[in-house]
Amino acid sequence: MDWLNYSFKTEEFGYIEEPYILYRQHGKNQVGIVKASNKFNKISQVRDVSIDIKIGIFETYVQNENIFDKEIKKQNEKALEYFKMLKTKKYINFKKWGLFYKLYKTETFIKFIENFMVLNMPIIVAPIFKIRNKILKI
Questions:
Q1: Three-class DSSP category at 30
Q2: 97-104 vs 70-88: helix axis angle to the nearest 10?
Q3: For 11, 42, 86, 110, which has the most beta carbons within 10 A of its beta carbon?
Q4: Are 43 and 118 in contact (CB under 8 A)?
Q5: pLDDT score at 132
Q6: pLDDT for position 133
């Protein structure tokens, strides 16, 4: 995404060899939303933060639609709708799993499953999260 940061600053597009940001979120991070989850008592808190971050990202992409081709623009709009819809589903979601797959398919298998369960089936994950929190306090 360094090319995207550069393009906003200069209105030029091209590949930049060195990174222009200090932190990237990806499936093998040692810190990030997974580690930040240690501060939360409920899975709903982790889920809400995660969804709010995604909404913010995709709102930015949609607002800057002119830098994306039609296919990516359409996917950004669908992703924004998906995360906004997830905000209204507090317990379980059976909609748009294909879109979830497109958005998260590059994650490691474990991260894919974790994100899927937290975002789409928080009612199932909630008891496991409580047990995890009790173990972390030991």
A1: coil
A2: 120
A3: 86
A4: yes
A5: 80
A6: 77
